[in-house]
Amino acid sequence: MTTLAVGAQAPQFVLNGIDSKPYELGEGLRRGPLLLIFIKSGCPACDLALPYFLRLRHTYPEGWTLWAVSQDSRDRSQEYAQRLALTFPVLVDVPSYLVSRAYDPPATPTMFFIEPDGSIAFTNHGFSKGDVNQLSSLIANHLKVEAKVIAERDDGQPSFRPG
Fold this sequence. Notes:
With 163 residues, the chain is an alpha/beta fold. The chain has helices at residues 25-29, 44-59, 74-83, 98-103, 129-143; strands spanning 14-16, 22-24, 34-39, 65-70, 90-92, 110-114, 120-125, 127-128, 160-161. Strand 4 (65-70), helix 3 and strand 5 (90-92) form a beta-alpha-beta unit. The longest helix has 16 residues, at 44-59. It is globular.
């Protein structure tokens, strides 16, 4: 298996969130583009990246969707989401890892920005401030608003961390 590339069609799926609600990709895409981030508790790059994605969500609150796909148990995923104060849905991909196998993320975090037609417009793994700001531009372009810098160069955090 290889990680899905830009231009590929995102595999459809339904996963339950830590809130016990089902999340279906097609339904999410009906609201606009969707950013899917594969995460795992205990992942230092995830710990660094997720607050930026939370900031991205707060900067553009409407017109797109953000979901994290956790490769941990529901309890562990819930604890992790609470610790990082995540306000977007966290979906649980265990024990089957069906979605992880379909998307084949090489590391955590790995992100896939999926257009409403189901095509992947952006993908990358690890953490990079440049990637976060590129995602901000993609979302702003979709919303037809001015892009905001989400990850400031001199905010005291590293600009890159491999996953």
